[in-house]
Amino acid sequence: MREFVYIAPSFTREESINAILSIRLTTGGHCFSVRRDKEVLMLFAKDVVSSSDEEQMEHLYKSLEQHNLRSLSFSSVNIFHANGYKMLIPQSEVKAGREKIWLKTLGEPLSGDDIVSSLVEPCDALLFSSQPSCFYELKSMGELGSIQNIAASFITNSILSVPSKHRGHWIFVEYSRGVVDIVVTKGQKLLFYNCYNAKQSEEVLFYVLQVMKLHGLDNKPNAVFSGETMCGDDMIYATLRRYIPSFVLAANVMLKEICSDSNIEAMSKFVHML
């Protein structure tokens, strides 16, 4: 089990009222950050397997209590969560009232879950996903500013991270225990997005290779990985790198700009949250 903590020397818990708490939840663990303006005051991550949304919340509360955050009040609480019940639908289809036809292909969400949507501006589409009702319990810690599936920020940040003058193909892969999201762009134009159920590194590799083949990408594409680098003892990122050496960790590029502690570069879970 991996646990990581970074606390800035300037962080005092009394200042939480002016800070934002951002939380990321997956079935494979959780992480959260506390930031004030542009300053990151605290980062935390923990790998712990959960079988339900309620169990995820129990593990999260234990971590918050461990660091004396559970009883604090923040100016805003943002929640980013991962699951496989999601679909990216063009705004033109939504405006025409056809989103229910698309969503039928996903089947029914878990009982009690809400269906919500997030605007993904760079590709003029809406990401529809299921949202567990138990997340609303976090409103006791501050105003719920945002609750969204991590795929929305993954797609947005992937597109915008491509240099504006670059016209080549890019493939972006994000893994959250049990689900792999894949984006393909040509420059900053989205060509493809889909998610797949995958619990082993070989399954992730299979889907990535199939998507590359679909778009005629060679074995050295511009390739970026983010999310959880392993599932138990199964090394997801290492397997991708073995067969597609051009893959790089998004965290190595982005997180080192947040603070100087080099250990934080390994925490790729944060790359689409802050």
Apparent shape: globular
pLDDT averaged over residues: 85
Regions with little confidence, pLDDT below 50 for 5+ residues: 252-270
Order of helices and strands: EEEEHEEHHEEEHEEEHEEEHEH
- The DSSP helix count reads 7
* Strands ordered across the widest β-sheet: 1-4-3-2-5-9
Number of strands: 16
| Helix/strand/pairing category | alpha/beta
**How much helix is in the residues?**
10-25%
Rg over CA atoms: 18 Å
Describe the fold and architecture.
The protein has 274 residues and is of the alpha/beta class. The protein is built from seven helices and 16 strands. It has helices spanning 53-66, 91-95, 99-103, 150-161, 201-214, 236-243, 250-254, and strands at residues 3-7, 20-26, 29-36, 39-47, 74-81, 86-90, 114-120, 125-131, 142-149, 169-176, 178-186, 189-198, 222-227, 230-231, 234-235, 247-249. The strands form four sheets. It has a six-stranded mixed sheet. A five-stranded mixed sheet has the order 12-11-10-13-16, with helices on both faces. Strands 6-8-7 form a three-stranded antiparallel sheet. β7 and β8 (125-131) form a beta hairpin. The longest helix has 14 residues, at 53-66.
Furnish the topology, listing elements before pairings.
Layout: E1 3-7, E2 20-26, E3 29-36, E4 39-47, H1 53-66, E5 74-81, E6 86-90, H2 91-95, H3 99-103, E7 114-120, E8 125-131, E9 142-149, H4 150-161, E10 169-176, E11 178-186, E12 189-198, H5 201-214, E13 222-227, E14 230-231, E15 234-235, H6 236-243, E16 247-249, H7 250-254
Parallel strand pairs: 2-5, 5-9, 10-13, 13-16
Antiparallel strand pairs: 1-4, 2-3, 3-4, 6-8, 7-8, 10-11, 11-12, 14-15
